[in-house]
Design brief:
With 308 residues, the chain is α/β, with parallel strands linked by helices. The protein has two domains: 213 residues, Rossmann fold (3-Layer(aba) Sandwich); 63 residues, Protein-tyrosine phosphatase receptor IA-2 ectodomain (Alpha-Beta Plaits, 2-Layer Sandwich). It has eleven helices and 14 strands. The longest helix has 17 residues.
Length: 308
Amino acid sequence: MISGSHLTRRFGDRTAVDDVSFEVRRSEIVALLGPNGAGKTTIIRMLAGLIAPTSGSVVIDGVLLTHATGPALRRKIGFLPEAAGLWDRLTVRENLTVYADLYGLGRTDGIVDRLVQLFELTPHQAVRAAELSKGMRQKVALARALLHDPRILVLDEPTSGLDPEIARAVRQLFEERRGQGCAILVSTHNLDEAERLADRVAVLHKRLIAIDTPASLRRKLTRGRIVVRVAGGAAACLDAVRRFDRAAAADGQVLTLSLPEPERDTPALVRAVVEVGAEILEVRAETAPMEDVYLHLLAARSDDEARP
């Protein structure tokens, strides 16, 4: 539903985003990961039509984003910027009502009431935005992004500053919207949130380093690694398993080794361990934490840039 093709954005002599292409499909959540300065916010702003790419193109719901098509296409997007951008002198309710009027929603009280209740803003709806905490401002900004029931959400750090209970409610809301056919792009530094929420993860450092499901990214880092837990000491099994991997290691009850073809070789590995009299308690593929995958991808990118 929303895609960027060969997006590049320069600010003077500085290249913030370099030849990035990806899409967010209907009923999909994509998490955009990257360190500070990686270009995440610039990508978000280009896809939302707030700034134009230096080169490349954005397509929203099958229509090319241009100066002429921009106003109509931006109405299809629920956008949450890096900063909440509220009118400080207006109350919470007034902020939402003004935006509802700008979207031409007609009778707005019911819409505003629903979102005020959803984000637990009822006790604060008469408070001026300038008096709100960072978390409360974030709630109002999220409510504003959902006012016009958009089919595309482009969100920069949506759960930043939220308490755990509200952050969970927001994630559940995103899952519901995905189930209703919404395409959602979320920029985040929260790796745990990205892994639990996203269908695919895009790792960015000016260029797109990788994009895939969290599970696939983890498997690429630990391809073929098998963990076998046995009753008693694992060291007694080392000779039997080293015909599969000379670097197999034993630590307490745990054997760790790599198999060239795990699906093909694991049954033979299990037989070999049983034949030496060991009782197997567990056999599983080793998976890396998302943090390890993320840091590995960034380190590989840095190594590539350092090569002459």
